[in-house]
Amino acid sequence: MKVSIVVPVFNEVETVSLLGEALYNALQGIDYEILFVDDGSTDGSLEALKRIIDTHPETMRVIEFRRNFGQTAAMAAGIDHSTGDVIVTIDADLQNDPEDIPKLIEKIDEGYDVVSGWRVDRKDNFVRRLPSQIANWIISKVTGVDLHDYGCTLKAYRREVLEGFHLYGEMHRFIPAYAGWVGARIVEVPVQHHSRKYGQAKYGLERTGKVILDLFTVKFLISFSNKPIYLFGGTGLVLIALSIIDLLVLVMRRLTVGEHMIRSPLLLMSVMLFILGFQSILLGLIAELMVRTYYESQSKAPYSIRSVYPDHQAH
């Protein structure tokens, strides 16, 4: 198998030279390529990358962005331009250790489709670790793919499990969840984690809101992309049921205590709930039409096949 190493780079001029040599040493004996994606760096990282590639032009490439598009876009570009059967993603700040890459590839050789790094002894401070632990728990429960460390960039994927979806926002951390959706075999492997020695962290707590919003998107795509009527229609039925209950309460109050129905705010609430419920069902039907248009216009099957046995086409 050929292995493609994808490295997003943004203002890491102090580390890229050290990382390039560390990757070169760690990957001896492996058929590999390294794709550095310069995400609009302004500190000379691109020039440093080009000097590294001049020393190993047969195995290294750099993809230069016109501006900073973000880590997810950088990963998507690296994946799109890679040629390997296995794709490994790793950060450029030297907190991930390239020496762990062969360990991940061994798990791929064992038959796993996704191998996720787990920073057991994470070297970040408590302010960064605690929100990460909470986020990992929430993402695991929402997506159904139980991982300790979604935020660890060091991961290995078989190419086929990355096909069929596109990355936006902060979606790169949810790739294992997408892979689990198509039936990928996923395993978590403890990896080393080093303290940051150079530069500054590029992401802080401000990205938490983006991750939460992206999680809503992931949950919808995983659970309801093929049958959106279950979400919209289910919500609509609940709202209509509440409307009917509200109306029954209003009638009972009229019969028992003589309260005027027109004067009660419950009547307006009942009407609003019914309208919202009906609209939700209509949205679900429209979404159903859009799903069918999406699949049929691309001749895209709403499933993913691992293999066919026996494969008569091979003969």
Major sheet attributes: 7 strands, mixed
Architecture of the largest domain, according to CATH?
Answer: Alpha-Beta Complex
Give the SSE order as H and E letters: EHEHEHEHEHEHEHHH
CATH superfamily of the largest domain: Spore Coat Polysaccharide Biosynthesis Protein SpsA, Chain A
Radius of gyration: 25 Å
Number of helices: 9
Which CATH class of the largest domain is shown? Alpha Beta
Description:
This protein folds into two domains: 3-224, Spore Coat Polysaccharide Biosynthesis Protein SpsA, Chain A, CATH 3.90.550.10; 228-297. Helices cover 47% and strands 12% of the residues. It has helices at residues 16-26, 45-55, 71-81, 101-109, 126-143, 175-181, 208-224, 228-257, 265-297, and strands spanning 3-9, 32-38, 60-64, 86-89, 114-119, 155-158, 186-191. The chain has a seven-stranded mixed sheet, with helices on both faces. It is elongated, with a radius of gyration of 25 Å.
